[in-house]
Design a protein that fits this description.
InterPro entries: CinA (IPR050101), CinA-like_C (IPR036653), CinA_C (IPR008136), CinA_KH (IPR041424), Competence-induced_CinA (IPR008135), MoaB/Mog-like_dom_sf (IPR036425), MoaB/Mog_dom (IPR001453). The protein has 415 residues and is an alpha/beta fold. 42% of the residues lie in helices and 25% in strands. The strands form four sheets. Strands 2-1-3-8-7-6 form a six-stranded mixed beta sheet, sandwiched between helices. Helix 10 runs parallel beside helix 15. The mean pLDDT is 96.
């Protein structure tokens, strides 16, 4: 089954809004086993939108449109789709009541144009919007399906996952089941080389690697008559991937993040952790604090950006800073050790580096980062030379710090 995505909104064409919806929808359609050949962004123009929809219908079984369902005059999606499909817009009493309830609970006065959202194409399936006022719409005609979704991601994502995903899954004649193998500590090119034979020889199940910042996610997808059979097909492939990547596999849970996996390890081994950061300015601590229940293992997070702070809070020696500099293996070691003793914890991860765009030298270029982990009276230090802008360097530093923390726990405790 072929699906096509149409993102509606002049703001997308002007670059004022990043089209995260298309990325989300494309990924979910791939999981469903739908073939996606075209994605289109079109502005709020009636004629161009109509032409885009007509073209999409000719070459795809399912057309998903996002955006343009709001109350203003430039929100044209529903009206144009209805016109293209020869349908009349009729008022949906259920949606009208939901809109009324939404504004009443929000204590906001309803303006007349909001009732525009209560009109839907005749014969359409109306999908309730639990996070806004514009309902979703499903239209089925001559073996073709057109789905309309609201533009705001906080409305689109839950609507898609709760209602549209199950609907699309039922359209498939077979069951599609996927399992994600998440790997850290292995580069994208290395990971691809390690599984090249699996990719080259894939039929069903399929194996697809996805590069993330500091990680590689490998999706294994099987098509079968039912989920039980698909799971059986996937199991040996996942087992082989685990054998090849070993301890670098941190999860096979689609929704589990690297920081969640690290927190689980800390909890399992009853360890308390502290972070000591310079160039990342608290980003590592923030990633850890994203995890519910982290208070059981996370003691403190230090941002020691200046040399004075490194000396005062982490007991980094003045002589070390003078001889080796703030960005050095020696300083990273002392930061990690100082963090443990300052908070009486079991583990401390320290980061010091040059995020740029200024501050680099020939000897110590922008992107040079040292990450240290103190555990079990031992300090492990890694040197990295990251590429990219300031934001990218800091983000990569955090992922590598989480990876090092995980590796060190496994090295000492083996689980």
């Amino acid at each position: 089954m072929v699906v096509e995505l149409i993102s509606v909104g002049t703001e997308l064409l002007l670059g004022n809004t990043v089209n995260t919806n298309a990325c989300f929808l494309a990924e979910k359609c791939a999981i469903l086993g739908l073939s996606l050949y075209y994605q289109t962004s079109v502005g709020d123009n009636e004629q161009r939108l109509a032409e885009t929809i007509q073209t999409a219908q000719k070459r795809s079984d399912v057309v998903i449109l996002s955006g343009g369902l709001g109350p203003t005059q430039d929100d044209l999606t529903k009206e144009v789709v209805a016109n293209v499909m020869g349908k009349t817009l009729i008022e949906d009493e259920h949606t009208k009541q939901r809109i009324n309830d939404y504004f009443t609970k929000s204590q906001i006065t309803i303006t007349e144009n909001n009732w525009k959202q209560a009109f839907v194409p005749e014969g359409a399936i109306v999908v309730d919007n639990e996070n806004g006022t514009a309902p979703g719409v499903i239209m089925e005609e001559n073996g073709k399906t057109v789905i309309l979704l609201p533009g705001p991601p906080n409305e689109l994502i839950p609507m898609f996952m709760n209602d549209i995903y199950p609907y699309l899954n039922k359209l498939q004649p077979e069951t599609i089941y996927s399992k994600m193998v998440k790997v850290c500590g292995v580069g994208e090119s290395t990971a691809e080389t390690m599984i090249k034979d699996l990719i080259d020889n894939q039929t069903n199940p399929t194996v697809a690697p996805y590069a993330k910042v500091g990680e590689v996610h490998i999706r294994v997808t099987a098509r079968a008559k039912d989920e039980e059979e698909a799971k059986k097909m996937i199991k040996p492939v996942v087992k082989e991937l685990k054998a090849r990547f070993g301890k670098n596999v941190y999860s096979t849970d689609e929704n589990e993040t690297l920081e969640e996996a690290v927190i689980k390890l800390l909890e399992k081994n009853e360890l308390k952790v502290t972070t000591a950061e310079s160039c990342t300015g608290g980003m590592l601590a923030a990633r850890l604090v994203n995890v519910p229940g982290v208070s059981e293992v996370f003691r403190e997070g230090f941002v020691t950006y200046s040399n004075k702070a490194k000396r005062k809070i982490l007991s980094v020696q003045k002589s070390t800073l003078k001889k080796y500099g703030a960005v050095s293996e020696k300083t990273a070691k002392e930061m990690a050790k100082g963090g443990v003793f300052a908070t009486d914890t079991d583990v401390c991860v320290a980061i010091t580096g040059i995020a740029g765009p200024d501050g680099g030298t020939e000897e110590k270029p922008v992107g040079l980062v040292y990450i240290a982990c103190y555990i079990d009276d031992k300090v492990t230090v890694r040197e990295f030379n990251f590429k990219g802008n300031r934001s990218k360097i800091r983000e990569q530093s955090v992922v590598k710090a989480l990876t090092l923390l995980r590796e060190c726990i496994l090295d000492v405790y083996g689980k």
